[in-house]
Predict the 3D structure of the following.
Amino acid sequence: MTTSRIQLALNVSDLDAATRFYTDLFGVEPAKQRSGYTNFVVADPPLKLVLFENPGAESPLNHLGVEMASSADVRVAAERLDRAGMPHSFAESDRCCHAVQDKVWVEAPDVPLGGWELYTVLADDPAPGSESGEGVCCGAGASGSTCCGGGGSAGQEPAGVD
């Protein structure tokens, strides 16, 4: 990946049906599928679409994000937020959404889970049942996790979700 793309994370009640719908809508197969989780990498329009099976969610919108090309891009974004005085949290090598990521979360009004995530994917996280745990975040019962924008504050490194 050489440029950024918007991430849209949705809560869905039926992951299989939603996966079929978005496969047909965008004409691409899922990039990653795990229990309760699917993501798509759509080239046109540039979009990372993330689906969480979360039938009891209060909102169909889980969170918003920007997938960035590198950790350096994430650090530059964090520095920009510092200069603007915007509350945020930063995490390195955070295990979230079935991946290892460097990320910054910035608080935003009127967004589920309270903010936007600016991140880069460093590596795939092993499948469920591995040492790193389920890799479930931003899904059912995870609203307080770091990867979902909870925890930490401006300039602090919150603990990752393991």
Observations:
- The radius of gyration is 15 Å.
